[in-house]
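Lab manual, section 2.4: Encoding a predicted structure.

Procedure: take the sequence of the chain (260 residues), apply the prediction step described in section 2.3, and record the output as structure tokens. A sample record is shown.
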Amino acid sequence: GLGEEELAGIVASHFLEAYRAEPSAADSEDVARQAREWLLRAADRAFTLGSPEAAFGHALQALSLAATPDERAALHATAAKGAGLAGELGLSWEHLIAASDGYRMLGDAEAEGCLLATATPRVFDAAERGELTRRLEHVNRRLDGASPAKVLVLAALADAASYDGSHAVALTWSEQAIVLAQSLDEDEALSAAAGARAWALFNTDRHFEAALLSHALVSLARRSRSAQTQVTATMRHGVLMATGEPRAAMNSFLEAAAIA
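Recorded output:
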């Protein structure tokens, strides 16, 4: 039989064809809405099945039917994720910026912060990394109070600073992130903060503290149901341990490979 992603794609195509055949029909808005919903379902399933190219294609089709600014922003975010995982970094950047601009126009700092925090600085060039940091700093100023989104943004700022060699800045951002995360009951935020802090400590030769945090991060990741979270945590732990404990590092890499 048909798989879930294939079935969702076929249903979405039927609604899409019906809308394009008669875009001025009385029920065209409802047909377009159903097409968007099925395309999003197909995109989500494609991500789950490890097919980011298909997810990106579904997101682009849904974008052509988006009726409101919030729909467009969310679909640009989905397209950015799909393109990035497919290795289309230029397209990923374009959709990331479009989504960021969209959320900013809507005044949704939390959505923009969560979006920007998912970007990986090392895959972009220096100018793009600078723009990413500028946008993270801007949204950080607009996020009031304690929230998981605020922690994710602080952790992303720390990671960006670490990557660019601004280790003192990374320590400052990561300390703010870990302190705030400890006041919240949210594993994703705590994981992001602990990871950023461990990396910042490691880069300033505070290897023992980094290893302790990294061990805690792996334990936290194992509690989650996300294979990606566990792989990221164990791989990062292996990198941190490679200098002083190569056997432990190798075990982490093997564990990550087994999970993947």
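Check your result against the sample. The mean pLDDT is 88.
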